[in-house]
Amino acid sequence: MSAGERAQAHLDRIAKPLRSLGRLEELIVQLADIQGTEDVCIAPRCALVFCGDHGVVAEGVSQSGSGVTALVARAIAEGTSNVSLMAAASGTDVLAVDMGMLEDVPGVLDCKVARGTANMARGPAMTRAQAEQALFSGRALVGEMKAKGYRLIATGEMGIGNTTACAAMACALLGLAPQEAAGRGAGLSDAGLARKWEAIARALAVNRPDPDDPVDVLAKVGGLEIAGMAGAFLGSMEHRVPVVIDGVISAVAALTAARICPEARAYMLPSHMSREPAARRIFEELDLHPVIDADMALGEGTGAVALLPLLDMALAVYHGPHTFDQLGMDAYTPQEGQA
After folding, report:
1. pLDDT tens track for 131-188
2. Pairing state of beta strands 93-100 and 109-110?
3. Is the Cα torsion angle 193, 198, 203, 204 positive or negative in sign?
4. Contact 221, 125 (CB under 8 A)
5. Residue in 25, 38, 157, 300 annotated catalytic
6. Beta strands in 69-188, from DSSP E residues, in sequence order
7. Cα 22–25–29 angle (5° rounding)?
8. Residue 19 in contact with residue 50, Cβ under 8 Å?
9. Catalytic: 336?
10. Of 29, 180, 271, 301, whose CB is crowded by the most CB atoms within 10 A?
């Protein structure tokens, strides 16, 4: 019997209707299989927020300029950002990771591959070698976090213009039109959204990314922070550490990792369904089912961190004393028609 099967057997001995914690039970079973034990534990844990700038901002695809990336990264390093405040409420450490910011920010982990990507609407966002370096750095970071004792990693990102890169990747990997993949990001006007769609269409036409080569897609129309996250999802399999998917940008990184190595999918935990148009299509492709549907689109890893208190509560039940044996009653048994 596998660790996951033993975890499910234990869940079925808890005094509650069978499978009544729904997807939270599924995640506990998945965690047991990843950790190789039914004694599931997700503390201590951390959030890695991968940061990078995007040359496509020059096409007017975002409401704010690239300088905001460094401002938010600094706030993360200082513990005052949105994700920092949410993570503090759930006992989660937060680290910002510079994969490719234009500026250097004190207190941020330095994995910088380049000072931002090139404008993908005019040519490749980065070289293949740069994409591979960022993938490697993300994989290595998971090993470093495991060595520090972290049992679970939440992913997040910060990079002005990265919803444009994300949508372009989704178009290339899933055969979508820009209008099916790209939303308003941080709050674009109708005119801004039209520019975004046009920039994505031009990037795909200029670069012709190969949908059968996920690294080619990543290099031509992706981002350095997306590559770092994709590397983290690959590292989750290598180091047997569960990694939580955040919103649509984290999800496209997870899809990239799964296309590179399908076995990596088993180590990915979905958190929430972003309101960005491509999110649902990506999760359908991954056959993963987010627990939270709150219409969030904040980024920074906030959705991934929001999952953790729910898991804590489910694990409190899982590790608690409230069993059929303790109550002296017969256990529930599967009934006809019950899944």
Report:
1. 999 999 999 999 999 999 999 999 999 999 999 999 999 999 999 999 999 877 767 7
2. parallel
3. positive
4. yes
5. 300
6. 93-100, 109-110, 152-158
7. 145
8. no
9. no
10. 301
